[in-house]
Write a structure and sequence with these properties.
Elements: E1 4-6, E2 13-15, H1 41-66, H2 71-82, H3 98-131, H4 135-145, H5 151-163, H6 166-173
Antiparallel strand pairs: 1-2
C-alpha cells in the first residue's frame, strides 16, 4: 500500500496524489476541481453563470436608478407639509390638505425604499451566483426580479433556465476548497 492512503469517505485505498476518489467519486478535502475543457457542457455552465452574475449587477444598477424616481413624490410631499401655501392654486381651492403631503411623502419614500431593497437583493444574488453559493436564494430572487419589467423579467427567466439545470445545481453543491 505504498503511495496510497484510505479515502476519507469510503475507506478504499487511493493514490496519495488523487484529487477525486475513483471508488465513490467524492472530491478529496483541500482539492480543487480542475477547470473544464473549453467547449464542454461544464465550461458552458461556467460561462453562463458568469454572464448571469454580470447581468445581475447591471440589472441591479438599473433598478436602483429607477427607484430614485419616487423621490420626486417624496419631495413634493415634504413641500406640501412645509409650505402648503406655495402649492395652492389661485382662486377658491386654496392649499392642499396636510394629509396629501403625508400621502405623497410616505408613498414616495416607501416605493424608493422598496426599489433599493430589490436592487440590493438582485446584486446580492449576482454575488451568490458568482461564488456558487445559496442556490435557493438565487432562485427566489429570480422570481422576485420578474416584477421589474422588462429587464428583471428577462434576467429572471434566464436565471430560471440556467439555475434549474442539474449540472448547475451540482456546481452550487460542490465542496469548496478550504
Amino acid at each position: 500500500m505504498d503511495g496510497q492512503h484510505p479515502c476519507p469517505f469510503c475507506a478504499e485505498p487511493i493514490k496519495v496524489e488523487a484529487i477525486k476518489c475513483r471508488h465513490c467519486g467524492e472530491m478529496l478535502p483541500g482539492q480543487v476541481r480542475p477547470p473544464a475543457p473549453a467547449g464542454s457542457p461544464a465550461a458552458k455552465d461556467e460561462e453562463q453563470l458568469n454572464n448571469l452574475a454580470l447581468g445581475h449587477a447591471v440589472v441591479s444598477a438599473i433598478i436602483a436608478l429607477f427607484a430614485c424616481m419616487p423621490l420626486i413624490h417624496l419631495t413634493i410631499g415634504i413641500a406640501i407639509l412645509v409650505s402648503p401655501e406655495t402649492m395652492g392654486g389661485s382662486g377658491k381651492s386654496g392649499p392642499p390638505p396636510a394629509f396629501m403631503g403625508w400621502l405623497f411623502a410616505i408613498m414616495g419614500g416607501a416605493f424608493a425604499l422598496a426599489g433599493w431593497t430589490l436592487a440590493a437583493f438582485v446584486f446580492a444574488a449576482g454575488r451568490c451566483v458568482k461564488r456558487r453559493k445559496r442556490h435557493l436564494f438565487c432562485i427566489i430572487v429570480a422570481g422576485v426580479s420578474c416584477l421589474f419589467m422588462p429587464f428583471g423579467t428577462a434576467l429572471g427567466i434566464c436565471s430560471f433556465m440556467v439555475l434549474s439545470r442539474p449540472s448547475v445545481k451540482a456546481l452550487f453543491d460542490a465542496p469548496k476548497p478550504l
